[in-house]
Specification:
The protein is an alpha/beta fold and about 475 residues long. The chain has four domains: about 110 residues, GMP Synthetase, Chain A, domain 3; about 170 residues, P-loop containing nucleotide triphosphate hydrolases (Rossmann fold); about 70 residues, Helicase, Ruva Protein, domain 3; about 90 residues, Orthogonal Bundle (Chromosomal Replication Initiator Protein Dnaa, Chain: A), CATH 1.10.1750.10. Helices cover about 55% and strands about 10% of the residues. It has 19 helices and nine strands. Strand 1 and strand 2 form a beta hairpin. The protein is globular, with a radius of gyration of 26 Å. The structure holds adenosine-5'-diphosphate and magnesium ion.
């Protein structure tokens, strides 16, 4: 179901009234169960727009906002909705983003199917070799290589994705399987391949489908006696992108159909791109023949981003949104939201919301308030001074000698280690680090880092010392 903005505007007043009372009741139930901050950030900005036969339509400001509600408050919202409107109540989100076309997602609180795809997602099984209209690729233009931040954690996956986009079906990365935890960028990267290949004319027919959607369509095709249309359609693609294949688990018939589609595409030299939350060989309930085929190409993992990448992601978001957030605050967020890019983006958005809602400057205090609702144990960004203190204590030397001129061997080692850790665990520039060590030059810091890195490579005892020390510092800084 697609709800357009003007349809929303045409709702008669009378309905708006009862609608608001109902929404008010739902809100008061929700308010009882969450803290005030989260309520303000995530529920106050929602506008109820329509109530029609137990189906409530609410307007949320962005796709992200919708996803956040779904991820964090799904059961709270559905139980509150059901208490007020009865067990068959439905909720429709209308997303009204600034720069994207209006679209909506229908959510039914009924237990099993939590999210019903909008009806425009119904596939027309056209069997031709013409380019698919963009809205039938189910790609999202938001996902590009350009706004996917490179980092050590995604290096291989990103490099392979770029290679595949430049030459779909023509590299040995077929299939390309990306795996990793949730919110780390798998969907983003896969869709970036599709978008890029279309844009550069490297593919005409690209389709993005989740394994769940593939399954539902397959079942529908069986019911409607259209399995051959279904198969022909998917086998006519230049690039087939299937997201979250772990959900194929236990669905034997669907796996069988997918197996034949896979073989057919692979034989034709077409590109297959898959993602999973774990390495293919650890997928339970999946046919061995499929798993072995997944290993024909390249399997690349995406790890949680390191501090530098997290900060770069936040900076890029600020640039894209033309928002100014002080570096200090960005570092603070990046230091605290560590495991998941989606959560990192969520935190960024909440901070923007809170600042605009309350008309406040974005500073550490405001960021801390938001972080407290997301992270259990908010810590301040690690400083070079803190690192010096702990390193000095560890090597049992006076702290100020790290900044002094002395060249005594044991001091030099401790100083180099402290510089190396400062480079690794903070966002400070080489210059800043040097200044913090008695006004030394940035080249001294580079030399220190290289020396420590080399030592780590050849001396396992030294490596474990450094690891131990880093752990100590990370714990201390909490
Ligand atoms: P997954 O599919 O692995 O669960 P997503 O691709 O949906 O994760 O990513 C979650 C969010 O984080 C998306 O909004 C995505 O754009 C963003 N994201 C993830 N990794 C990066 C990155 N390296 N650079 C920029 N944005 C990223
Ligand atoms: Mg995903």
């Amino acid at each position: 179901m697609i709800t357009f903005g003007n349809a929303v505007a045409a709702i008669p007043n009378q309905e708006t009234k009862s609608l608001e009372t109902v929404w008010g009741e739902i809100l008061s139930l929700i308010q009882l169960q969450i803290n005030n901050q989260s309520f303000k950030t995530w529920f106050e900005p929602i506008k109820p727009v329509k109530l029609d036969q137990g189906e409530m339509t609410i307007n949320v400001p962005s796709q992200f906002f919708y996803e956040w509600l779904e991820e964090h408050y799904y059961s709270l919202i559905s139980s509150s909705l059901q208490k007020v409107l009865g067990s068959s109540a439905k909720l429709t989100y209308v997303v009204l983003p600034m720069d994207e076309p209006v679209h909506s997602v229908v959510v039914s609180p009924a237990e099993i199917i939590s999210r019903v795809e909008p009806t425009h997602s119904k596939v027309e099984y056209s069997e031709n070799s013409h380019a698919l209209p963009y809205d039938q690729t189910f790609l999202n233009r938001r996902y590009t290589f350009n706004n996917f931040i490179k980092g050590e954690s995604n290096q291989l996956a990103r490099a392979a994705a770029t290679a595949v986009a430049n030459n779909p079906g023509g590299t040995s990365f077929n299939p390309l399987v990306l795996y990793g935890g949730t919110g780390l960028g798998k969907t983003h990267l896969m869709q970036a391949i599709g978008n890029n290949a279309l844009e550069n004319g490297k593919a005409k027919r690209v389709i993005y489908v989740s394994s769940e959607k593939f399954t539902i369509e397959f079942i529908d095709a069986i019911r409607g006696d259209k399995t051959s249309d279904f198969s022909n359609f998917y086998r006519s693609m230049d690039i087939l992108i299937v997201d979250d294949i772990q959900f194929f688990s236990g669905k034997e018939k669907t796996q069988d159909s997918f197996f034949h589609t896979f073989n057919s595409l692979h034989q034709l030299g077409k590109q297959i791109i898959l993602s999973s939350d774990r390495p293919p060989k650890e997928l339970q309930g999946l046919d061995e023949r499929l798993i072995s085929r997944f290993q024909w190409g390249l399997t690349a993992d995406i790890q949680p981003p390191d501090l530098e990448t997290r900060t770069a992601i936040l900076r890029k978001k600020c640039d894209d949104d033309s928002v100014v957030i002080p570096d200090q605050v960005l570092d603070f967020i990046a230091a605290n939201v560590t495991s998941n890019v989606r959560e990192l983006e969520g935190c960024y958005t909440s901070i923007l919301f809170k600042a605009s809602l309350e008309g406040k400057e974005i500073d550490i205090d405001l960021a801390r308030d938001v972080l407290r609702t997301i992270v259990n144990d908010v810590r301040s960004p690690l400083t070079v001074e803190e690192i010096q203190r702990i390193v000095a204590e560890f090597f049992d030397i006076p702290n100020d000698l790290l900044r002094a001129k002395t060249r005594k061997q044991e001091i030099v080692i401790a100083r180099q280690v402290a510089m190396y850790i400062a480079k690794d665990l903070t966002n400070c520039s080489l210059k800043t680090i040097g200044l913090n060590f008695g006004g030394r030059d940035h080249s001294t810091v580079i030399h220190a880092c290289q020396t420590v890195e080399e030592q780590i490579k050849i001396d396992t005892k030294f490596r474990s010392t450094i690891e131990q020390l880093k752990k100590k510092i990370e714990i201390h800084s909490r």
